[in-house]
Amino acid sequence: MGRKLRGAALRAHKRGKANAEEMVDQTADRVETQQVTTKTNEELFVIDTTGSKNNKANMPRKVKQEIQKEKVQKQKMPKLEQERVNELVEKHDSAKLQQMVKEGKAKLRGDRHAIKQKQHKKNFDLWANEDDNTKKRIKSSNAQADKVLQYAGIKTGIHVAKVVERVSKKDMTAVAVDVAHAGQSYRPDPKAYQAVVQDAVSLELRRQEAEEELKAPLTKGMSPETRALLLGDSDSSDDDDEEDENDNTQDDNTNRLMPKRQNKLTRAERNKQKRLRQEKASQEAERKRKKLLNSVAEIPRFKKELKKHVREHQDKKEKIKADKEAAKPTLGKDVLQRNSQKDPIRVPTLPVALEEEHKEASLRTIKPKGSMLTDRMVSLADRNLTAKRKRPEDRKRGRGGKKRKIKYKEAAMAMDFSRMG
Fold this sequence. Notes:
Layout: H1 8-37, H2 41-44, H3 61-75, H4 79-91, H5 94-119, H6 130-133, H7 143-151, H8 190-215, H9 224-230, H10 234-256, H11 267-297, H12 299-327, H13 335-342, H14 355-359, H15 372-382, H16 408-420
Helix pairs in contact: 5-7, 8-13
């Protein structure tokens, strides 16, 4: 038996074995590559001049039809989605469907854009070129939305918008702030000045009417008709009482008269009446049965009328909502006019100078009307950007001081001492 290798000799033997295996692999690779590199291009590449047997032009008609059926089956929507599409098509018209598809595509593009931004978020480089900081356009399409439009018979566009659209249910309106009117300036235009004066006069007239209504008494006293009724003659009332008594006695006499007794019916007459009642009942049952059959046959018409009624109700509801949004006042505009409708007594006067004050006066000597700071604070309070001013009469008056709790026994003893004293 040979001696086992150990230590440095074993490591040297392993290195030699690994080098030998590597040399064998390199030699095998070199031989394989030489077989390809030594050949010409004509031997390596072949041009197909006959064409493929599976070409679509050479296929039989039945095979083409089967391939087309498979494509249609793949593109066909599931049953649940098909029912939802049918429901949408029945409820909405083509314009509403196009709007829904457009919003869905825009929302899908926005969601994808947001996800991509989170994954690949890059900091804006202030010193980079303009082209580096431009946002890349995102291409996206919604096949499901296109299927809905195609099913409804609506043509869809070839390309969708390439930029990201922000779709919001409610349009964002710019914040409006009341500025000084042209008629409130120094030596204003006559027409603008007259318009401002009319606004100021309307505020004062509204305040005057509210004050008069507040000072007016709650009741205006007893009317002449009521006074005459309460303070009428006693003789006429006695005559009325006598007439009422006479009427009551006549009614009692008429009630005492006995009703006339009917003659007794014979058996034949009773049977005849019974047959008539049975025929009438059978006719009534037949009429109800025919009415029920007619109502069952008219179910499709009722369904159409119901759908039409629901659609009209929805359109009317949307129109009312749009009218309310349009009639909603803009916050920060016409603050004094709106406040005068709520509380005409407390609303401040519209700051406008009289014609005599600035007719011959210079800009230095004229006294300014109103305050810019007050106007801005009123506008901020109207837009709910700051707390509104509370007047002393609006605040609830509470008892001041610390609340002291008195036990029941002590309170009872105090009451007893007070009685004894």
